[in-house]
């Protein structure tokens, strides 16, 4: 197998249309297993220019392969691999402004993870003390996602759609607000029409392992250094408010709707909320499938008793079937999704996954026992994890360093308003639940 040729146009010839209509910021594994596959399956010739935000690895992997890579699907049966050709260019961050300014570009999509927006999850505003944002605001050649996006948009005349594909509440609106705030504070004017549809994206994409590379090579007969691994399930719900055309993603199974909010809330609170619960409560398991084997009942009760009652279920949608399907997806043993991958960046994820549920249940006069258990498990993680992978790690660690009792840990962390807002620490019900759970967990 080691003798095999590397994946490239020589091994799989195809036509390369001349123009790239989509610039994607954050071409990590998730984009390649999700939106890029929809773009390929739309079959109408749209190409993607993928931009890596932080590391040059993807450019190094895909460059020699002419942008080609494979998607390895691991479900209940035999794994399968297919080659995707929608990515036509992979560039590093410095190219962002120029590529966004290109009038041939109609869609700018983003998967830069929650922390990539450099906002306060609780208020949705740019983090005031973020040094990179401050420097971008002074007018240097921008380095942050928002700074580059604004600079590129300001250079355009032609209308364009900015499509946020990250797991944030009302992600289109949230991104629009950040762009407007940056414009205001930097005195930048954007002259072209820009649409910011919201989207709900869903596909579980663990990090690729060396075994995945070998498996794909076995299936394809060529070596691909850019394999992404994922589950058979995929879903994309998009608000249909595009400013300048788009691929026929609906032909590839995407759902276009006037209102994404109910889908998004359901996905964030049920899938991602449960995921975070499993990651923190089941941190003694390496893989999600093992964690859910032990903790499936607690997750189900979180869904039934806490998250479920806070949702506005779209008419005709089978919520019970959806919850069961999530537990089945988590239990997929072939996926080898690491709990540690989900556990990172908790400060950026908790608000939209779990704290909205907590707020809504408290407002309804209920006790969010299971959601509080998940939050307490995150608090234990902050207190005890050897390494804390979180943009707020310093503040979190400092906060718990001198807290000895569960009560002190809870009070310290609850007072971080960037995460918990000003309101949650005022709730005696929530605080008591947290102290009780954390006492048990520690
Ligand atoms: C996960 C998500 O890493 C995480 O925090 O919860 O990446 C999750 O796998 C996706 O949102 C599924 O669509």
From TrEMBL:
Annotated signal sequence range? none
> Its Enzyme Commission number?
1.1.1.17
Q: To which protein family does this belong?
A: Belongs to the mannitol dehydrogenase family.
Q: Name one Pfam family in it.
A: Mannitol_dh_C
**Mannitol dehydrogenase C-terminal domain residues:** 259-431
All copies of the Mannitol dehydrogenase N-terminal domain together span 21-250
* GO molecular function, a single term: mannitol-1-phosphate 5-dehydrogenase activity
Which reaction does this chain catalyze? D-mannitol 1-phosphate + NAD(+) = beta-D-fructose 6-phosphate + NADH + H(+)
Claim: NAD is one of the keywords in the record: yes
- Give the first-level EC class, as a single word: oxidoreductase
Check the record and name the Gene3D superfamilies matching this protein. Answer: N-(1-d-carboxylethyl)-l-norvaline Dehydrogenase, domain 2 (1.10.1040.10), NAD(P)-binding Rossmann-like Domain (3.40.50.720)
One GO term (biological process): mannitol metabolic process
Natural source organism: Actinoallomurus iriomotensis
In terms of SUPFAM superfamilies, this protein maps to: 6-phosphogluconate dehydrogenase C-terminal domain-like (SSF48179), NAD(P)-binding Rossmann-fold domains (SSF51735)
Give the keywords, sorted. Answer: NAD, Oxidoreductase
Q: What is this protein called?
A: Mannitol-1-phosphate 5-dehydrogenase
The answer to keyword DNA damage applying to this record is: no
């Amino acid at each position: 197998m080691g003798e095999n040729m590397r994946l490239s146009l020589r091994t799989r010839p195809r036509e390369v249309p001349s123009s790239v209509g989509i610039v994607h910021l954050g071409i990590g594994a998730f984009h390649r297993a999700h939106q890029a596959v929809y773009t390929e399956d739309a079959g109408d010739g749209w190409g993607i220019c993928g931009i890596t935000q932080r590391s040059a690895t993807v450019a190094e992997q895909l460059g020699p392969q002419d942008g080609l890579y494979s998607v390895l699907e691991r479900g209940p049966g035999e794994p399968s691999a297919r080659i995707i050709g929608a990515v036509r260019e992979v560039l590093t961050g410095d190219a962002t402004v120029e590529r966004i300014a290109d009038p041939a570009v109609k869609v700018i999509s983003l998967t830069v993870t929650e922390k990539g927006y450099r906002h306060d999850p609780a208020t949705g505003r740019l983090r005031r003390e973020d040094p990179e944002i401050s420097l971008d605001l002074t007018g240097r050649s921008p380095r942050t996602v928002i700074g580059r996006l604004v600079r590129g948009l300001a250079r355009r005349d032609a209308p364009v759609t900015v499509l946020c594909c990250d797991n944030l509440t009302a992600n289109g609106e949230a991104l629009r607000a950040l762009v407007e705030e940056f414009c205001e504070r930097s005195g930048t004017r954007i002259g072209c029409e820009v649409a910011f549809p919201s989207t709900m994206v869903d596909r579980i994409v663990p990090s690729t392992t060396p075994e995945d590379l070998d498996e794909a090579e076995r299936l394809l007969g060529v070596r691909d250094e850019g394999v992404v691994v994922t589950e058979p399930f995929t879903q994309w719900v998009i608000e249909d408010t595009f400013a300048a055309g788009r691929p026929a993603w609906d032909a590839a199974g995407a759902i276009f709707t006037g209102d994404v909010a109910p889908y998004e809330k359901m996905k964030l609170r049920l899938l991602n909320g449960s995921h975070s619960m499993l990651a923190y409560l089941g941190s003694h398991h390496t893989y999600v499938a093992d964690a859910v084997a032990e903790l499936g009942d607690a997750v189900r009760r979180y869904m039934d008793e806490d998250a479920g009652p806070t949702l506005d279920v779209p008419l005709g949608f089978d919520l019970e079937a959806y919850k069961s399907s999530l537990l089945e997806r988590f239990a997929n043993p072939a996926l080898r999704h690491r709990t540690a991958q989900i556990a990172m960046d908790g400060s950026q994820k908790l608000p939209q996954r779990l704290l909205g549920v907590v707020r809504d249940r408290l407002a309804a006069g209920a006790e969010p026992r299971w959601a509080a258990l998940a939050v307490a498990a995150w608090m234990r993680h902050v207190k005890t994890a050897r390494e804390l992978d979180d943009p707020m790690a310093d503040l979190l660690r400092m906060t718990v360093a001198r807290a000895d009792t569960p009560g002190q840990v809870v009070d310290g962390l609850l007072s971080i308003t960037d995460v918990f807002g000003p309101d949650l620490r005022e709730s005696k019900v929530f605080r008591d639940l947290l102290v009780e759970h954390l006492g048990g967990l520690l």
